[in-house]
Every structure is written in C-alpha cells, then in structure tokens.
Amino acid sequence: MARMVQCARLKKEAEGLDFQMYPGDLGKRIFDNISKEAWGQWQGKQTMLINEHKLNMMDPEHRKMLEQQMEHFLFEDGEVQIEGYVPPSE
C-alpha cells in the first residue's frame, strides 16, 4: 500500500516518497508534504539549473542557491526560471 500525502506542490492527495530524499528539517518537510510526482518534477528542474548555472555541488553557496530554488518550487508554487529555456509547446 502506497503512503499518501497531501502534496503541497500539486494541491492534491498523491503517493508520497518511499523515504526521505533530503537531509534535515527541510527533508522531513518534503517527505511529509511532497508527492513522488512533484519530487520527480523538481528533479528535472534541478538538473536544468545545475547545467544552466554550471553549479558545483561541492560549493556551499551553490547548494544553498539550489535549496532555495527547491523550496520555492515545491512549497511556494514557484516556477524555476532557466535562462534561454523554452518549454516545449503543448
């Protein structure tokens, strides 16, 4: 039986993550309030951000920026702005 959460990003009940994907309090908040589907959406955005900004995940400033973007996307209905990226048309 899947663990269900009220997803903060999708605004609906959806299948939750199998385990905490991110450390600390933010990780717990994500585990409790973000669905697998929304986490998957974030993973795609994260990859684009890392590539676009040539982020080095060993750099604490880069990790902090990425974490802020993640929180914005998952909990504040934020969209990730990637320069020069044009979403595919429907």
UniProtKB/TrEMBL annotation:
Gene Ontology terms for molecular function: iron ion binding
Sequence intervals crossing the membrane: none
Pfam families tied to this protein: Iron_traffic
InterPro entries in alphabetical order: Fe_traffick_prot_YggX (IPR007457), Fe_traffick_prot_YggX_sf (IPR036766)
The entry's keywords: Iron
One GO CC term, this protein: cytosol
GO biological-process terms attached to the record: cellular response to oxidative stress
Entry-linked NCBIfam families: PRK05408.1
Family: Belongs to the Fe(2+)-trafficking protein family.
Alphabetized HAMAP family for the sequence: Fe_traffic_YggX
Free-text function comment from the UniProt entry: Could be a mediator in iron transactions between iron acquisition and iron-requiring processes, such as synthesis and/or repair of Fe-S clusters in biosynthetic enzymes. Necessary to maintain high levels of aconitase under oxidative stress.
Stated name of the protein: Probable Fe(2+)-trafficking protein
Source organism (scientific name): Paraferrimonas sedimenticola
